[in-house]
Amino acid sequence: MRIATWNVNSVKQRVSRLLPWLDERRPDVVCLQETKLADDAFLELLGDELDNRGYAVAVHGETAWNGVAILSRVGLDDVASGIPGAPGFPHQEARAIAATCDGIRVFSVYVPNGREPGSDHYRYKLDWLAALRDVVAAGPEATIVCGDMNVAPADADVFDPEAYVGQTHVTPPERDALAELVGLGLHDVVRDRWPNERVFTYWDYRAGMFHQDLGMRIDLILASEPVAARVRAAWVDRHARKGSGPSDHAPVMVDLDEAPDGDIGPVVPPPSRPVLERAKKLPQSQ
Predict the structure, then answer these.
(1) What is the spatial order of strands in the sheet that 143-148 belongs to?
(2) CA–CA separation, 60 and 42 (whole Å)
(3) pLDDT tens digits for range 53-73
(4) Which of 31, 73, 103, 266 qualifies as a cystine partner to 197, CB 3.0-4.6 A?
(5) Cα separation of 21 and 193, whole Å?
């Protein structure tokens, strides 16, 4: 079974990328984030196309912001939208959906950004992660949490730690909150499989960050032990970030039980000429 997670940064803007990608990669379960569509609008836009490809669909969206979905060709049962007990900002946002797919409890999550360390939105992010941890802890043994965590787990997951000083995504409280989730017994399947490799999933649109491979690894697949034991390949589909009209995120893929494309490496295709110098300023700080 192939499971993928992808922050599409507006599914309406990404239809011409999403559908061919589904046909090419043929994932069995797809977790989408930042769909930016209300549920009815999502189904009107993509319902027939997804049905024709054999996908059942669970969506939890809102107009213009946030939004998550699960697409499945292997069953879609016990759908639950939102995180019980999670905070709002100020209202409950469409940031999580869960369903059981072929015996695995699948979560698609879009963690709040945090905006600025110490801000109200930053505290909201930490509280939201704590609520997610509690829900996952109460779930079944076979669980997988997929999505845009908006946290780089370690310094190795950003192109230059010095460039992120004072920014969100890398602060100790954020990393501690993510570590508490992982500490439930989840495995970061890409990092477990490729512990020493340069792997990113997000590259800012500005200043040629993608072409220089100046990115972050903030999109994760976290699997409980029974699921992690079935992993045969785990990789980032960098090809989906190339070309015209891409999302600023690339899909993360995991193959369970068998790997149709083989154990093909951490990033496909690998960057051609990554820039490796230190202390480059982020585009928004220039």
Answers:
(1) 77-81, 96-101, 104-110, 143-148, 219-223, 187-188
(2) 9
(3) 999 999 999 999 999 999 999
(4) 266
(5) 24
* Among 143, 137, 146, 132, CA closest to 221: 146
The residue type at 206: R
Residues of the chain with pLDDT under 70: 273-286
First and final C-alpha spacing in the chain: 44
Minimal CA–CA distance to 76: which of 57, 95, 59? 57
Pure H helices in 58-171: 120-137
Q: Report the C-alpha gap between 51 and 55 in whole angstroms.
A: 5
- Write phi, then psi, for 128 (nearest 5 degrees): -65, -40
* Residue 206 in tokens: 């500005």
Task: Name the phi and psi angles at 119, rounded to 5.
Answer: -80, 170
Angstrom distance (rounded) from CA 98 to CA 144: 10
Tell me which residue of 106, 59, 102, 49 sits closest to 81, measured CA to CA: 59
CA angle 96, 66, 267 (to 5 degrees): 80
